[in-house]
Each structure stands twice: as C-alpha cells, then as structure tokens.
Amino acid sequence: MKLIQMTKTSSFSLISTNKIIQINNVWTSYDSKNFALEGINLSIDRGTNYAIVGQSGSGKSTLLKLMNGMMIPSQGTIKIDYVTPNMNNKKFKHMMHTIGYIPQSLGLVKNITVIENIMIGALPRLNKIESMFKRFPEHEINEAKRIISLVGLTGKEERKAYMLSGGEKRRVAIARALMQKPTILLADEIVSELDHVTAREIMNLIAEAQKRMNLTAIMVHHDMQLALEYANRVAVIKEGQKILEIGVEGDKIVDFQTGDLNTEEIMEMYDDSKK
Ligand SMILES: Nc1ncnc2c1ncn2[C@@H]1O[C@H](COP(=O)(O)OP(=O)(O)O)[C@@H](O)[C@H]1O
Ligand SMILES: [Mg+2]
Fold first, then answer.
1. What pLDDT score does 9 carry?
2. Which atom of ligand 1 is nearest to the CA of 189?
3. With CB atoms counted within 10 Å of each terminal CB, which end of the chain scores lower, N or C?
4. Could you identify the atom of ligand 1 that is nearest to the CA of residue 65?
C-alpha cells in the first residue's frame, strides 16, 4: 500500500492513496422524479473483494452501472482510480477497457464459440485492421489459452455458448472479462442462480484470479452468507441507501460504517432491511 505522509498543523496524518473507488454523496435517478440511489458514500481498497447486497430494486445494479460509466449521477462524485466515469471523459474512455463488467444476463454471444466469446475481451488491444478481421496475434491466443485453463474450460473452446451449463457460461463471462486484463471486475449477481456448490466454485475461481492479477472485485450478491464468506467488506443497500457496511473479523461481524453495532445488532438491521 502506498502512503503519503502529510503534515497537518502540528500533527501527522496518513492519507491512503490505495482507494481505487471513491463514491461521495451520490444520488441518481432514471426519470428525474424518483431517486434510485440516495446519498451513497463508499470507498473501496485496491485488490480487495467488495460485495453489495440488498433486496431486489434496492439499487445494486444501478450502483455498478455508475462505476462503469454507463450512468452518471445527478448529484455527488465518483472516482475510479481518480478518474470520473463518464463516456464523454477522454481519460475515462482510455481506462474503460480495464474495467471488466459482467451484467446479470452475462452478455455472451450465444451462437459463437467459447473461445470467440473470450477473445472479445482482447478486441480493445487490436489495431483497426486486426480488429476488423478479428485476427488475433499469437500472444493474444496464448493469453486466452492460459485464461481458459485458469477458469477450467480447457477442452470446451469450440463449443457454442448456448450449449453450456449455467456454471460454464459464467466461467466464459469471467474469462472474457479477464481477457481485458482488468484492474476492476464488476459482476452483477453472477452466482445468484447457481446451486450452492457451483456458486462456491465460481467464487473460488474469482478469488484465485484476484490473487494472481491483483484485481479489485465488486460483486452484487443475493446471499449475505456467501457475500460475507468471500468479501472483505459488504455494503447493504435498502431503497437506494447504504444502511450498513460490514465484514468478518475472526468470528465476529464488524460494523465498519459507524463502528457502534455488535454482531446481533447488525443481523437485526440486516433482517429489517429485507422487510
Ligand atoms: N432502466 C430503468 N428505468 C427506470 N427505472 C429503473 C431502471 N432500472 C432500474 N430502475 C429502478 O431503479 C431502482 C433500482 O433498480 P436496480 O438498481 O436495478 O435494483 P437492484 O439491482 O438492486 O434490483 C428500482 O426502483 C428500479 O425500478
Ligand atoms: Mg440488479
């Protein structure tokens, strides 16, 4: 972690430059009448796994879309590696390919093969001609092979995407995102529809990729237990507001938002958030 030491009057304070995502008092609306998010504050440390949990319609997907520059806030600021996510921002356009976004629908092209889907992640690195003819240099093909092996899809390269199981489809979506060489991975309910065992296989896979590639993963989950198991921090969203930010330390659930709540109080608040 990089730290900058600053003198503030007579005392020292340490300001971390390790925050890859900083969201400050963000409000956003789809129809300029109702707010989908109301005054969201959060900051995410580089290389960590951050989870967002909440009921359907609470604003989780909206939050990911803001981080990806697909939406802009009506109020407040967002910084991704100190850059404002906005398609009109040149600086952001340059770094966009380093954000791997997996929508809830996965966004795979059904009628093309596993390898063809995965190679889509490398397209931003090709020159115009290579990209037009989808001619991938050998080192990109080798990179794809490495990633295919990492996600456990070796032998399935030529299979059409529509022929795959739910777990395999998710592996392809992860591989396509990793092919982008991302620094941030945004995944929207990627394991929600999977059985317990497959969900953990996919989560372990992401944890492994994170370690190898120093990825920051921001994942929307339905299941709080799974979120707490894998994430360093879990934000609980209710009706567009962040009502809790928690994590596991030892055998306790810790309240990082106010520092005031104990495990029982946190669970009570979480249960209330589902009402
Ligand atoms: N494209 C859209 N147009 C209008 N309202 C939307 C749109 N997408 C989401 N919303 C509304 O914004 C709120 C948050 O939605 P969303 O972020 O999708 O929630 P979640 O992912 O937690 O289920 C909901 O009230 C939803 O109806
Ligand atoms: Mg959603």
1. 38
2. 21
3. C
4. 17
